[in-house]
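Please go through the sequence and fold tokens given here and tell me how the chain folds. Record follows.
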Amino acid sequence: MRTPLVTELKHDSELFDAERFDALAQTEGSLTMAFKRTMEQADALLNERFLRMENIKLIIRRRAWVMDKLLQKLWQQFDCSRSPDIALLAVGGYGRAELHPHSDIDLMILLRQDDSGASYKTDLETFLTQMWDIGLEVGHSVRSIKQSKELAAADITIATNLMESRTIWGDPDLGRKMREATGPDNIWDPKAFFLAKWSEQISRHNKFSNTEFNLEPDIKGAPGGLRDIQNIGWVAKRYFDARRMSDLVSNGFLTNEEYDILNSGHLFLWEVRYALHLITGRGENRLLFEYQRTVAEMLGYRDSNANLAVEKFMKRYYRVALSISQLNDMLLQHFDEAIVRADEPDSIEPVNRRFQVRNGYIEAKYDKLFEHIPSALLEVFVILAQKEEIKGIRASTIRLIRDNRHLVDEHFRNDIRNISFFMELLRSPNKIYTQLYRMKRYGILGNYIPEFGQVIGQMQFDLFHIYTVDAHSLHVLRNLRMFRHQEVKKDFPIAHYVVSRIPKIELLYIAGLFHDLAKGRGGDHSELGSVDAYEFCIHHRLSKWDANLVSWLVENHLLMSITSQKKDVSDPEVIHEFASIVEDSTRLDYLHALTVADICATNPKLWNGWRSALLRQLYSEARRALRRGLKRPGNREDWIEETKERALALLSNRNFDEDTVLELWDQLGDDYFLRETFADVARHSEAILTRKKPEEPLVFIGKSDERNFQGAAELFIYTKDTANLFAATVAALDQLNLTIADAKIITSTNNFSLDTFIILEENGSPIGDDLARVKQIEAKLCKALKDPSKFPDIVQKRMPRALKAFNIPPEVVISNDLEHEHTVMELVALDRPGLLAEVGRIFLEHNVLIHSARIATLGERVEDVFSISDADGNMIQDLDLCERLKQSIKEKLDHPAK
């Protein structure tokens, strides 16, 4: 806890003493050296005070005060300091007397007339040179009052900087005249200034995706950052001539509570910025992954059983940013109504006895509305969902909602009118996401659903979840709404289909809202969340059947994605196991829509053609299994026979001899026909039987029309089997900057290997129809596989910056699958360039054969599953070999990548 600011700024001799400075200058024989030594000592003292949790406002103002004193000493050595026509001014942040360790020192040398500085040109040049020699990060300008006015009139940024100027040395009247010349009576009247700053803010927010919840936020420029607070101050100063934020309270544009929120948020962001400057040694405003842990520790956060210190710190940051952003929105809308639209005639349309629409925005008819009728706190959002023509809520009513959000308590939640309003909102045809988002921003949703309120700002310190839990939950709901639209049918065909036929869409929305709300409590969030969801449904008068469905969806919301990513969905037993948990097609429909919405809302980069194909195959096969009946599971033999029949029909149409085809197939084994579609079997068979150089590896890339990978290319390799074939292949793919999503390795009875890899570019993008790229890949692999014993070295690539912030000790679990007579190795580790190639090399060193690999990269984390065997193709029953394999992988992957 930082000490409060109890006194105004006073002389601090520990930081600066004039006599001590003069003596030091005498000893050093140089003012610049004395300046440098004094500033270094002051910085060290101020940094110690910061680490002792002393008041941040006092620290940064003290730093500005020391800088003032030192610049005065430097300036006084020149004749220009005695001229009544020249003044040294601080502008921008320094003008506000705010200096962090590596803030820019923004100075303006102000001249009374254009030629006032002509006779002092050498002095001014020497002064600036000395500051650069000292090592100060100086931004400077030399202008007359007239020039200042001309430049400020043309540039809103210059006008803003000059508003905050203050005199360090010289005639204060010069600065006053300059501020008057550049004031609202001469340039940038309040309306023009407001519109320019609002437009500037919109452009700035767009650079940060219009969200407070970026994983690596810019604490200065992003929504809810320092610039948003400053923007409020600038507009207020231009309109009210307010000198400080507290003046807005006396002007009635800010309540005491709102002022406290802005002030405490401002101080917190200052602490974060100061810490960032100390950690990086530069003027850094980006809260990057590699700094977040250290900043959290520096600000006093500590790990607990449920949450890491960095997660607690970032939760505080996101909540502060959200509260600042909310107030910024409301206050700028207030300014818009008071400044821009003050003279416009009002157009008022009544809605009911409680609300009316003024100039397109809904407002309460009287100030005590929410006190008298608390249910109106929900009703207003229902009206907005039902009347698309209403643009939003007037600022005065937003304030009333915020001021009365405390009324949304247990009594409010138990009121049948409010229960009815909330369910009516979820069943509304339009803008449900928009209204829930507004409810969150104005403090209503977190109070109405306390579980939601607890996770506002809750982040997970990883690269997989790129949104906070609250933002992610609302994005899931937005995606579920999006699936209704015809234009998404191409990208999400099954999700579009099931959402359009689901009988009670509101149940899906509730599941989407609740599926992650138990995160951060400790324990299994799926199980805890399912209990919360069930209670919510019963409380909202839903039937037990509906409540059980929602509860089941929340508990099993990861089932479909885990099954598709970690298991072989071409295996009838996997399908039967999955279908047995789902039990009926209604659950399957709901679960598919929720799964796709969840994946897309977790991280947009996760969704690609390969994941889509896996989920589509799992959905289709599970639906067939449910139609067939769970008591009649799919038979492996039937599955294989059907694949062969359909593939043979295709090949017969292409004039292939049936006996020749069957002779080839006799060598391939049953697993091949289980894992491949009939279209792929036909395509592979055709390529093998028509190849012109049987002695060389057969390598080709194609897309499976059957599975429609939408850009995830299928690489097929048919070549003589060798122990190092897998290692050689993955090393070559790594050199080609390709990533592997899936691998299947089949060894025929005549000692040939049929390998199928699903590949994407390293950044996750599809290879597409780039024929030159396809030929490059095929040629490189063909060359590498002609002599796999000389497979290419693993490429040494730089570890991406973001990955360096994480430490995931590798976990290796080896078990035997008695059903399939294979050994399964599960690997969890920090992602790194060349990881799969490293694993392939270790398999080779231990004479371990690989039969399949399911690759899942989840942000900074990989979760891979390998089906392996010993050198004879049998399950690995040698415990010593298992232990050696585990240790080799752990030692290799635990070694920090560069």
